[in-house]
């Protein structure tokens, strides 16, 4: 690789460098590839390391790069599109569901969840833990709360097998509709560990109520990494992986 000098431009130098770096990511680097160190990159583009850091930080905010402790700066996978709509109705765990079931326990949910499910404050529910991974990186974590009377026939003892059993039983119910709500939040310590982020990192929290028999039959609280997700609105619901060049900031 030769040395590329930046021309004099009216925009901030770091912003022009961000554009040049973005083009280099598209043409020279693959998803997950580790970038050269800051000293080499600064020399290549003929800029101060402080300018380079500003450009790298901007690309990280846009979800183009990921900085991982002990690894370095890597090229991020395309952003996941979190599509919020009402037309699609599907229970979690269906054939097109990309989530991975990890565990399931029977426990008393938080008070706000119990209120939404209209269960007693001390009444235990099935809590299914699931994960969403793309390009080998965790991008979302979900807690799915299911009242015991929604899935009465669960015979698997524990773990992922029990989680899959709960999801199978949900498919037997006739889903009337689902309702989504989205808010920006900060990752708690447990969520940060699951998502490979630091506590307090920005996240998108998508809450979905699944309605059957005229009541909330299940409640999903899914936490998405804000640096790898793009919020979109439309008639279609669910979550899709967007491949290709669509990597602009939300």
Outline the structure in words.
The chain has about 250 residues and is an alpha+beta fold. It is built from six helices and eleven strands. The chain has a six-stranded antiparallel sheet with strand order 4-5-6-9-8-7.
How would you summarize the topology of this molecule?
Blueprint: H1 13-28, H2 38-45, H3 49-61, E1 65-68, E2 72-75, E3 80-84, E4 100-107, H4 111-117, E5 125-134, E6 137-147, H5 159-170, E7 177-186, H6 189-195, E8 202-212, E9 215-225, E10 229-233, E11 239-241
Parallel strand pairs: 3-10
Antiparallel strand pairs: 1-2, 3-11, 4-5, 5-6, 6-9, 7-8, 8-9
Helix pairs in contact: 1-3, 2-3
Summarize the structure.
The protein has 6 helices and 11 strands. With 250 residues, the chain is of the alpha+beta class.
Q: Name the helix and strand elements from N-terminus to C-terminus, one letter apiece.
A: HHHEEEEHEEHEHEEEE
Shape: elongated
Mean pLDDT over the residues = 82
Beta-strand percent range? 25-35%
Span from first to last CA?
A: 32 Å
Binned, the helix content reads 25-40%
Structural class by secondary-structure content: alpha+beta
- Rg to the nearest angstrom? 22 Å
The largest β sheet comes out as:
6 strands, antiparallel
